[in-house]
Protein: Putative NBD/HSP70 family sugar kinase
Organism: Kribbella italica
Amino acid sequence: MTLTDGSRPGGGVVAADHVSLRRNNLSVVLRHVRSDGPKSRARIAADTGLNKATVSSLVAELVERGLLRDGRAESERGALGRPGQLVELDGSAVCGVGAEINVDYLAVTALDLSGDTVIERRVPLDVAHLAPGTTLDHLAELVQHAVTAVTARGGQTAGVTLAAPGLVQGTTGSLKLAPNLGWGELQIVDEMRERLGGPAYAVRVDNEANLAALAAYSELRKESGSNVEDIVLLTGAIGVGGGMVAGGHLLRGGRGFSGEVGHMPVAPAGGICGCGRTGCWETVVGLTALLNKATDADDPVRDPSLDVEQRLAEITRRAEAGGARTLRALADVGTWLGIGGAILVNILNPDVLVLGGYFAVLGPWLKEPLESAIRDRVIAPDGGGCRVVQSELGFTAAVRGGAQISLDQVFLDPTLIGRDATGVAQ
Amino acid sequence: MTLTDGSRPGGGVVAADHVSLRRNNLSVVLRHVRSDGPKSRARIAADTGLNKATVSSLVAELVERGLLRDGRAESERGALGRPGQLVELDGSAVCGVGAEINVDYLAVTALDLSGDTVIERRVPLDVAHLAPGTTLDHLAELVQHAVTAVTARGGQTAGVTLAAPGLVQGTTGSLKLAPNLGWGELQIVDEMRERLGGPAYAVRVDNEANLAALAAYSELRKESGSNVEDIVLLTGAIGVGGGMVAGGHLLRGGRGFSGEVGHMPVAPAGGICGCGRTGCWETVVGLTALLNKATDADDPVRDPSLDVEQRLAEITRRAEAGGARTLRALADVGTWLGIGGAILVNILNPDVLVLGGYFAVLGPWLKEPLESAIRDRVIAPDGGGCRVVQSELGFTAAVRGGAQISLDQVFLDPTLIGRDATGVAQ
């Protein structure tokens, strides 16, 4: 149940009835334990404003559904002088899965309800040179492997979210366009459901930068708390994408096509982009631009069949060794990163600009020119308070975000998980 | 009460207690009547899922507070065969006021609860050449005039929202920087409250483009219904600002400094901006850029002491008469408008890009190059579905948005208005 606020005149109207109130309160208790950690029933009642009998009944139901469990006894005595039993998230019962298709790899991860990683896999694959169907066969195998691992530890899969580097329409489960994969329109959710044997869990698709932004946002909230509500994440390697969280909400745009920052026309004299246009931002800040500047055509670091992390490790080695050509190329990419970065910060005023994907790996050389452009080119004093940070999630950000979205559905509506905790109620 | 949704992991947790539930349900009923028009109690119950006895009690309280009133009888017989009495918004009791400071004018408007205009005033003023205190004296007079007009018709003022063309921090009621006014930091809310004699109603400040975007969003929702949730509004004359609504929420950024689109560095070879930097978007799309291209230095249309609408009417006259220099200048500004517009559409994927301020007046000449750039430079098919429309609110958009924000507080919490409807409960 989401009610409108002052910023949303004319928004939807939702009144509370008893069923939705119960579901809402289950969600409130479950999310409270997630965000604040193990708690006694009395403390949950005090924090949420619900009365103690209601909280006891809600906790009992969440335990039945396998989402909460009784943990250790409270270490400090409460106001009543009796140590209470703490309830905590039950990590084991329910997992979310994220699965990513990218230009040169596939990846999968499963996270349990407490956010712990159950399984994580990444395999290099030259996706742009395979038929989409073949790639999806490989991806389905990876997903099935993750689901099996979840089942093997006695858990159930709440949902699978696919991350794709392109224009995605989540409502219809379709990929509209992924220029760097060379893919056109594809009913990707249907294709995957079929390959997975029509599973009971939900399958969704989202843009990889959106999912990476959600994962980064989640990490930042753990570190910085609720004073971070607005972030922009830049990710990619060959292609460059942006994911944005504003006022705590993921920005998707009217049709779900927001965040196409790689195609901002910032370099009129730039090269031809994968999208067919000239001067897109990714032609001056993408991995190809860096490699073209830093290396000769026959340099093995350009080989797309090598794992991208190995190739970036080699660039890093050269930069650390003071290779003049590499450093010049990084400085040039950093300057262009600053020009586009300042545009994003002027428009969105994020608390944090997160460097993800390949930008995170080369952050030590890119960050300074980016920060300098933000100081110089952003009109708000002190860059509007924007910090630049390197993501520590590496290339796992999108799959982690995908797994989180699958789990979020359970946090929003705990009744999705059956009371016997053996099957997903659809 | 705003609950988090799936896009907001780790967001706030709010549980319903009886007082907040009652307040929430009062708000639900009041907003439902606003968005759907006059309704019988039975219909409100059916639409909201609340039971009829509860709805009757809620409506009675809203009538007591002067927010709803009984209207005509239902024209069609309901399911029970009895025509019901319709309840409707009581426009007369409560008004919101918006007041704007801009480079060359001040404006004020008061809207009643049904959105009807009670009073509207705009006065040319060369603000950039006056001391801030003198301008605020003039603005306070205008606001007092509006409040008096509201009182004279038996209403009360729920709040006053100031619109300023610059960086605004709503939480502290301060203006940080308004380059085109030549104003630095100013405790503008305190200054105005003092000039207004410490009024009982709330005084707020917001960015003028944000408020104009809210007003435009509200108009679009009236026309297009709920399929519009994402808009970008461009406004301004000398300075250029952007206001953005995404997923139904106004974007403010981490510190409230979002929407500084006028300072996107898109024209490296451009002129010096009011902010001191080179190549900002407003140096190639603002009114000054147009006038420099279209007119000689001694052309009377450049005179800032004339009303901006008169000056734009003269430009329009010349364009309609086929003046080659005017048309060339408009085409040039339109092309630059498209370059920045495509950046905004790639990033935000709005349903609608609204031309406000001076862009709305000259829209007939600017729209085509802008639409063409969106088709050509936006990677999502069909420009991501983005329509370009000219605002019909003219230079009243920001004050209307300000009045609406003041009223929105009442829609969100009807208990702000006292039960005797004679005083604002603070």
Q: What stands out?
A: The domain at 94-211+398-414 of chain B is CATH 3.30.420.40 (Nucleotidyltransferase; domain 5).
